[in-house]
Design brief:
With 204 residues, the chain is an alpha+beta fold. Helix content is 28%, strand content 18%. It has two domains: 133 residues, OB fold (Dihydrolipoamide Acetyltransferase, E2P) (Beta Barrel), CATH 2.40.50; 46 residues, no CATH class.
Length: 204
């Protein structure tokens, strides 16, 4: 898939209405704060997203190779800019995201070690791993939408869900359907009014 990417957060973009989760890394959540070298809090999640936006703008379009889908139907992919620079590699190099061994098999571990040694990005201070932060800040045991949640089959995806026409929670019949719209449609965020990663909470 190739196109002009809009940044959703530090490890997720959207191209032509399709959300793509970067494979093998995890960036701080949009609402997450970290401590800098002096112990002061700063919005590390938003900073990662802003840095990613600047990085992608320098060489468009973005090209992503499909790897799989997570349980919400989002593409999981390896992405690079038009000039060939790998996005995941850059995020880890800059200390803006972590290697996630559960999904990466440690492919970015050496880049992470270098970022840590140089105290780049979040390594300049202290922080909580994004997957741990999500677990502590979710009132619902279901992980947040920005987390890769395992692979689903094409048969499970083929349930007739589509981004058009737009829907409201009153027009949606199940939690799975609501979360599919949240993860895949440009308007899906309207289903998560309190921005906690859970769509249509009366259903979920």
């Amino acid at each position: 898939m190739e196109g002009r990417a809009s940044v959703i957060d530090g490890d997720t973009v959207e191209i032509s209405g399709q959300r793509i989760r970067f494979n093998g890394i995890d960036a701080p959540e949009s609402r997450q704060y970290c401590d800098d070298a002096k112990g002061f809090e700063y919005p590390c999640g938003r900073r990662a997203a802003d840095a990613l936006d600047t990085f992608l703008a320098a060489s468009r379009p973005l090209h992503c190779t499909f790897v799989d889908r997570d349980r919400y139907g989002r593409l999981v992919g390896d992405c690079e800019r038009a000039d060939g620079r790998g996005v995941q590699q850059w995020l880890v190099e800059q200390g803006l995201a972590l290697d996630w061994p559960k999904y990466s098999s440690g492919i970015y571990a050496s880049l992470q070690a270098a970022a840590k040694a140089s105290k780049r990005g979040i390594w300049a201070g202290s922080f909580q791993a994004p997957w741990e932060w999500r677990a502590e800040h979710s009132e619902n045991p279901r992980p947040a939408i920005s987390q890769p949640l395992g692979i689903i089959s094409d048969r499970q995806l083929a349930q007739g869900f589509a981004c058009q026409p737009r829907r409201t929670c009153s027009q949606i019949s199940s939690c799975d359907e609501a979360n599919w719209y949240l993860g895949n449609c440009s308007w899906g965020g309207k289903l998560d009014r309190d921005k906690d990663g859970i769509a249509c909470e009366t259903l979920c």
